[in-house]
Amino acid sequence: MVSFLRWDSWLPWSCVFFTGLYLLGYWVVFARRWPPGAVDRFKAARCCMSIVHGTSTSMAAAIYMLNLFYTDKQQMSWSPTPSSHNSSTMKFWLASRLGAANTRFEEAIMEYSTAYFLVDLVHYVLFVPNQPLFVLHHVFTSSYMLSCRFYTGHGAFSTIILFVVGESTSFLQNVWTISLLTHGAKLFNLLNVPFLIIFSIFPGVLTPWATWQLCLYFLFSREASAVVPFPLALYWMWSVFMGISGSLYWVSTH
Fold first, then answer.
1. Which of 58, 57, 52 is closest to 202 using CA atoms?
2. Coiled coil located at which positions (predicted)?
């Protein structure tokens, strides 16, 4: 049986979960704010599931990454000095984790996140078709995770890193978007400058740094080619690059 159709796969159940959140936002949370069929009502409903996805994935990924780092550090008995040794050890740790076989947690969080992007993709195609930037972003992101989960069986730790740096601003971004849609002037003015500053730091600084670390491994190391075909690795990095470019473009237009 195809693995994503197994009863214990997170993908189909997560699709149901995020669809439920979307419908909850549309029919309950924002039902009185806009009439049925209003585009802003669809956009606000989409924010409901986006808040849950971004907050849960970034927190889960950060906790998992820190726990993994601490566990590996204990097992390898890393020395706290000198700093140059720490730097090389960190690079070794990242390389060892990036090339490792996917763990069940990594597979689950990828399926969970892919479900969100697929449901969100349907939202954009059906109700906000004039946003090709988001459509392309979701296509690239979903194909990245699906190929990592169901084809290579390796490289999922790269998505953990990207969840931490890419989804940490999700809660603030969606609250800011809702305040913009509902014309909540006080909340919008309160969040506007801090949000744009923080959102610029993550896609503008942290995400490019993380992407460079991924490129060093997937594109320039022999170990990576043994578990991830080079053309696919190139596509993965291109997908991340397009995601960063889209985020920076989005910030520049708001």
1. 58
2. none
Task: State pTM to two decimals.
Answer: 0.90
Rounded (5°) CA angle 127-130-133: 110
Ranges of residues in the chain with a pLDDT under 70 are 1-8, 76-88, 250-254
Gap between the Cα atoms of 108 and 208, Å rounded: 25
Do 169 and 202 contact (CB within 8 A), yes or no? Answer: yes
Distance of CA 207 to the CA centre of its chain: 11
**Number of separate domains in the chain:** 1
Two structure tokens written together for 63: 């906790």
Domain that includes residue 113, residue range = 3-252
Query: For 70-102, what is each residue's pLDDT tens digit?
Result: 888 777 655 554 444 455 677 788 888 999 999
d(CA 199, CA 251): 8
Residues in the chain: 254
